[in-house]
Amino acid sequence: MKRLSIFVIVLATLGYGQVALAQDSLPPAPYAYRQLDDPQQEHEAEELMESLRCLTCQSQSIADSDAPMAGDMRHQVRTRIAAGESPEHIRQWLMERYGDYISYTPRMSNDTWPLFAVPVLLFLGAGLIVWRRIGRRSGKDSQ
Amino acid sequence: MIAEFGLAALWLAAALAALQLLSGCLSLTEKGQNLALLVRPAAVIQAVLCAAAFGSLLLLFARTDLSVLLVAMNSHSAKPMIFKVAATWGNHEGSMLLWVTVMALAGGLIALIEKRLPERTMLATLGAQAFVGLGFYAFLLFSSNPFERLSPPAEQGMGLNPLLQDIGLAFHPPTLYLGYVGLSVAFSFAVGALLTRNVTPEFARVMRPWILGAWIFLTLGITAGSYWAYYELGWGGWWFWDPVENASLMPWLAATALLHSASVLASRDALRTWTIMLGVIAFSMSMMGTFLVRSGILTSVHAFAVDPERGSFILALLVLNIGAALVLFALRANTISEGQQFRAVSREGALVINNVALSAILGIVLLGTLYPLLTEAFGIRVSVGPPYFNPVSAIFAVPMLIVLAVGPMLRWRRDSLGRIEKPIIAVILAGLVGIIVAFSLGGIELLPFIGIVLSLMVAVGSVLPLKGRSLRRLPLAVWGMVIAHLGIAVALFGMSADSAFTQQTLVAASPGDVAKVGPWTITLESVDPVAGPNWTALEGRMAASYRDEPAQRIAPQSRTFWAPPQQTSESALLTRWNGQLYAVIGNEAEDGRWQLRLWWKPFVTFIWYGGIMIALGGLLALMGRVSVDLRRRHAQRRIEQRHEGYVQ
Amino acid sequence: MKGFRIGLWLIVAVALGVLALFATQLSKPKDDLVRSQMIGKPVPQFKLDAIVPDRPGLSSADLADGKPKLLNIFASWCVPCAAEAPQLAALEAQGVNIVGVAIRDKPADASQFLQLYGNPYSRIGADNLSAVQLAIGSSGVPESFVVDGKGIIRYQHIGDIQDRDVPVLLQKLREAGQ
């Protein structure tokens, strides 16, 4: 919940968020602040957690949040990975519930294709500019 | 009284900006040429008045004058002095006042000292500067008056958000602002040059110190912000591709491109339209960043006080400034001739690749930042985060960095790769060494792997231009370039090493327990309550030893502020030359143990050392450019004097 | 040269498009709600223990017993949950079967909360790990879901139920009962 107010806006005293979260009464979920014993599995879990959005804090990943719900989501992710589920399957499961919004990794779909098409166009455009600016003239000398 | 004085000074400054705009515009016409005399004095007096207004606000905050609404809302008499002063710009109104003040000071300075450009171009530039400034004066005076009185005065102030009560606040925002606003000068120069169709190498030379200055501050601001987020946030992250962070990165990307294209224009009279366009775009990005941050239309906790009226005001300014400048640009651009030509393999050729790649990365950051906003307009919510930005920007960053490794060794106009065969081999060898080392370490993912290899190549490539040159006679500007490029390599290495080698340990520990993270052994000795001026905290006292070295003490805190009430984690850092230990103490578990979060982050500090080197390189280049300009000016004056004395 | 000019105007067009986008987004209130994508889908399998002695726990099987229900996600530590208590009571008085999912709550706190603000629930499950909350796509407390007799989720209400929401929920429950 207290994602830094660091950049620019800092200036901008934030009116939002930070104070309001009421404290819940239970301790954090077992795997909210505990790593999996298998380093490989923990690594997979961390990678996934870093790319899932915390729903109660909105602009942090669940890996960077002290919000109780983020803790419960970390618990879900870790226990499922420990049970052998693949990270992408867990992501899929969450996206079925919360939509694309929960994943910081956009997937190609009817709603997101420009995110992938534009870089391709930019790449072609950049190539074209470089070619026209320098490639074409490389044959003749400057006057 | 101080508040009224400040407000009056602000109004007067606005009036002078109006005068500067009017006289600047009219003096470009046939009939209004006499008005040209007014423009420069107006700019200078405006700067003085605006500085007086800002000084008044500083004084009000320093005294915690609670009869001023802004002070009562954002400060508190119990705060340490430095945070009282920093609170001046730690809010919307104060930061906008800082913005116009810096802008007015820049305008005044140009008016006072800049004599190299044709007078018409200068008048148009100062007119453009007044045009942009006037919009911000109107914004301040009509919708964000910082001097508004509160009657009756408040008993006590509301305090400043605890996250902002940090030394970072004293430096980060004003630094970034200096960068943003500095780009407004480049913008005004670009508009002035467009209006008078005068795009020459001289123009680039005049504009360059301002770009450099703005760029140095942007670099420092982003570096400081990143480090601040890193230690304040408590999770060890230093860049999140958050919209607000992107808002500060985009002007930097544009300014970096502009810096390089301006140097092509200054040295070789090429890339004329491109330079003008980047000048317009760089400041547009600054303004857009301000809008995004302040309007609250993007999801970021950074965003504050969402005020539709203010958002609309900034949007109106955006439309006015960017719209007008871009249309002017589109109309005029093809009346500016292309400039000198060059071959593919040449310094210019390398810089064109740099420019195109930076622009493409800018495009991607812009797309990724705004895309969620676009889909939201159609009721669809998506998220774009690091897993998108990192690889997609790498597509352009990788070729750019490869060119960066060899580009500075190329000659202007035409060159051949054969001439610099040996340096190229050295760079390739560095890359091979990087590949072998990274492979032998094993388990490194693709992007950090590429990053490590490239950082070595760039590091070698960036110092090679020094070879065979007399270090003592090397111009400062070249030193600047070498150090800035080396800084890129250092920062890139830090980023890659952090993501490849960071180790994390989460434990629940009671006093006496020992935890290990990487090469560190950490003993939690005790957890004790401590009190500060406006907070109380639980402090975890720990002894940390690196391998067999003697233990050092660290004490992360979990702080509770009381004005306003809020909890924060204060991380504790132990810095070695080869990385940082990062420790955070969380909540107490039910069984009396404490949640500890420990990270060993090899070479993570290189990220910010690199940032500082980049800024330092900029500073050296700036000093070099300015001293050359001064010398040239001096020489010219002597020639003129001699001319008068002897010939006539 | 022609391509160059087209490129220039393209930049102007993109800039204007972006500014227009800003204007439309600015002109409407920001919608921060994260809606569940589970509407129209069956409630996932779950089984939660009871949290208070006088109400049984809750399982997905209980939700597919042929009658529509209002599934209310609440917690004793959540302030708006107390605010919606009168509206829940009104719904219960209209004959609505309300089942509760208590998020991250201690039995003692939950009992006290129910004593203080009333207990409209026929069953309450203790969701100590927010597992059910995640499974049905809820992103906060309080939230309420209309579930039909076959256990299909029909409607989601985000935030506390206010007076004006009561008829809407009654209508949705009626539709779910058909």
Automatic annotation (TrEMBL), chain A:
The chain crosses the membrane at residues 113-131. The keyword Transmembrane applies. It holds the Pfam family CcmH. It comes from the Bacteria. Residues 1-22 form the signal peptide. GO terms for biological process: cytochrome complex assembly. One of its GO terms (molecular function) is metal ion binding. GO terms for cellular component: plasma membrane. Residues 31-140 form the CcmH/CycL/Ccl2/NrfF N-terminal domain. Keywords: Cytochrome c-type biogenesis, Heme, Iron, Membrane, Metal-binding, Signal, Transmembrane, Transmembrane helix. Belongs to the CcmH/CycL/Ccl2/NrfF family. Possible subunit of a heme lyase. This is Cytochrome c-type biogenesis protein. It comes from Altericroceibacterium indicum.
TrEMBL record, chain B:
Residues 89-295 form the Cytochrome c assembly protein domain. It is found in: Cell inner membrane. GO terms for cellular component: plasma membrane. One of its GO terms (molecular function) is heme transmembrane transporter activity. The chain crosses the membrane at residues 43-61, 96-113, 122-142, 177-197, 209-229, 249-267, 274-293, 313-331, 352-374, 394-412, 424-441, 447-464, 476-497, 606-628. The keyword Transferase does not apply. GO terms for biological process: cytochrome complex assembly. The keyword Membrane applies. Keywords: Cell inner membrane, Cell membrane, Cytochrome c-type biogenesis, Lyase, Membrane, Transmembrane, Transmembrane helix. It is a multi-pass membrane protein. Its main location: membrane. Residues 315-625 form the Cytochrome c-type biogenesis protein CcmF C-terminal domain. Pfam families: CcmF_C, Cytochrom_C_asm. Belongs to the CcmF/CycK/Ccl1/NrfE/CcsA family. PANTHER family: CYTOCHROME C ASSEMBLY PROTEIN-RELATED, CYTOCHROME C-TYPE BIOGENESIS PROTEIN CCMF. Required for the biogenesis of c-type cytochromes. Possible subunit of a heme lyase. This is Heme lyase CcmF/NrfE family subunit.
TrEMBL record, chain C:
Its main location: other. It comes from the Bacteria. InterPro entries: Periplasmic_diS_OxRdtase_DsbE, Redoxin, Thioredoxin-like_sf, Thioredoxin_CS, Thioredoxin_domain, Thioredoxin_ResA/DsbE_sf. This is DsbE family thiol:disulfide interchange protein. It is found in: Cell envelope. One of its GO terms (molecular function) is disulfide oxidoreductase activity. GO terms for biological process: cytochrome complex assembly. Belongs to the thioredoxin family. DsbE subfamily. It comes from Altericroceibacterium indicum. Keywords: Cytochrome c-type biogenesis, Disulfide bond, Redox-active center. GO terms for cellular component: outer membrane-bounded periplasmic space. The lineage of its organism: Bacteria, Pseudomonadati, Pseudomonadota, Alphaproteobacteria, Sphingomonadales.
